[in-house]
Amino acid sequence: MSGTLYIVGTPIGNLGDITERQLDILSAVDFIAAEDTRVTRKLLTHFDIHTPLVSYHEHSPEAVIRQIVERIAAGESCAVVTDAGMPCISDPGAILVQNCIDEHIPMQVIPGPSAVISALAISGQDTTRFCFEGFLSVTKKQRYSHLEALRHETRTMVFYEAPHKLLHTLKDMLEYFGDRSISICRELTKIHEEMTKTTLAQAVGFYETNPPRGEFVLVIAGEKVKEESDKPSLEAVLTIARERISGGERAADVCKQLAAETGYPKRMLYQAVVSE
After folding, report:
1. Three-state SS at 194
2. What is the DSSP letter of 85?
3. Tens digits of per-residue pLDDT, 166-216?
4. pLDDT digits (tens, 9 = 90+) for 79-129
5. What distance in Å separates the CA atoms of residue 252 and residue 275, rounded to the nearest whole number?
6. Across the strands, what pairs with 185?
7. Which among 94, 25, 34, 80 has a CA at the least distance from the CA of 42?
8. CB atoms within 10 A of CB 196
9. Which of 137, 171, 178, 230: CA 20 to 30 A from 164?
10. Angle CA(203)–CA(207)–CA(210) in degrees, nearest 5?
11. Where are the beta strands (DSSP E) in the chain?
């Protein structure tokens, strides 16, 4: 008889957020598939759990996945965990789940904290409809393509970002989205947790002089849907831009101001006027 794969959430920072059910499963399974065995071992040691660990992460070869699936199919039970939060969300655990589905292996989810939902709850942004976009690529072409595809997204958007890339990401978002409301959530559930609701332009200015620290979740307002009568046409805005530039103003300054006033992205306005 086949065993079971348990998808187990773990705390995103505060160990007090772990549940009795999570502890019971982590203690009872035959082995745990962990993103980073060192991180998970610290968690298990804290709660005096001695379940064997196997390494399973985004660079694990197909042979490792097959070995895990074969062990479960042979009757062993396995818990898959990530370093923090719910596994299988923008996480290699999703591949393991798909393999278990293909093999008709039973699965159970043991829910836990989620940085995405926690950030949304505290953000003060519209949470009626939202989309999770994960990390932006470090490859310029993929990064800009991703941002371009979201230029007119009306739902609230949630991103993850590391401190060393935060300022660059905020600048790119300002270029593609224009100056929008953003809630910057840092170190959620940890000692130095904080949430700042600001604008993309203000956030860029702040982090240019204040090096960011900690892990970030960015919650960004979607594009506002304006009535056609309230929003000037793109051609009308470009006409104003051309007149001001011909009068001696810098193209970058004009496009930045018009982007803030009209909602059209600065990058789009600038490319239109300089390509003429």
Report:
1. strand
2. B
3. 999 999 999 999 999 999 999 999 999 999 999 999 999 999 999 999 999
4. 999 999 999 988 888 999 999 999 999 999 999 999 999 999 999 999 999
5. 13
6. 195, 217
7. 34
8. 12
9. 178
10. 140
11. 5-8, 31-34, 53-55, 78-81, 107-110, 130-134, 156-161, 181-186, 194-199, 216-220
Nearest to 101 by CA among 74, 58, 69, 77: 69
User: Using only C-alpha atoms, what is the Rg of the chain?
Assistant: 23
How far apart (Å, rounded) are the C-alpha atoms in residues 265 and 74? 56
Check: CB of residue 10 under 8 Å from CB of residue 29.
no
Residues 6 or more apart whose CB falls under 8 angstroms from that of 125 comprise 156, 181, 183, 197, 219, 220, 221
d(Cα 157, Cα 166) in Å, to the nearest integer? 16
Taking residues 10-19, report their average pLDDT. Answer: 95
Residue 244 phi, psi (nearest 5): -70, -40
SS (H, E, C) 210-270: CCCCCCEEEEECCCCCCCCCCCCCHHHHHHHHHHHHHCCCCHHHHHHHHHHHHCCCHHHHH
